[in-house]
Amino acid sequence: MPKEKAAIFVDNSNIFYGMERFSRSLRQQGKIGGDEVLRIDWSKLLKFLEHKFGERDIFARHFFASIPPRGDVEGLDRYPTEEEWQEIIRQSAQSEFYRTIQRSPYNFELHPIPLRRADVFCRKLMRPAVHKCLQASAGEWQCTAGVDLDECKTCTKKYLKTWEKGLDVALSVELVKCVISSSALETVIIAAGDGDYKEAAKYARQEHGKNVQIVSWASALASDLEEVANQDTVILEECWQILCFPRAYKEVRDEVPVEVAEEVEEEEE
To answer: Is the domain 4-115+164-268 a CATH 3.40.50.1010 member?
Structure first.
């Protein structure tokens, strides 16, 4: 019997932040160590999706990621120049994790989406914050933060602000292109819970008769997206013990998948 042809589209940011929230919950419940976080074993997830719902061939695998990861730029001690910013993006796109997921057994096509950035002067946020603070205190509360309000009014300090922009559009466009170009495609798997993907999922189902399945953390799943799907939703909280693994904070290096991390450790030994 021929395998069902499927394509998967991963919103890494959506999956990652849902995983971080669930990790905090597990730590509070004592189900993982107090210094541990969850990481997805992408190889196991792909195998799970290929065999759990009938035999499938996930022949198209697309991985969308915002770069650089915010953690890489939050610790910068100064605002980067344009050349420095482009180098940060280049190094991020070539990091071990992203190189690895493009190789076997993962074989994802990587779609790196650069973070937007802006330099924000401190006073732009401090002025309304100070105003609201004074309103709230109504003269009855003495601030002990040691902030000089007069200095804030003339402050010229600035910091780097970053935000994700365009990833949902890029994923939706790639999904539609895949649906249109591949007559063999039967099932679209969206690994994200963002409601912004509802229209692309609806297009795949209603205009081209494709099956739609959602893979998401419950905490990040929009009900209107789930309603479009006609195959069982994979709730990651319900199967984290077989698809995820805990790692200590100090061991998390560049988000390397579990098999690769173990190979690196063996080489170091």
So the answer is: yes
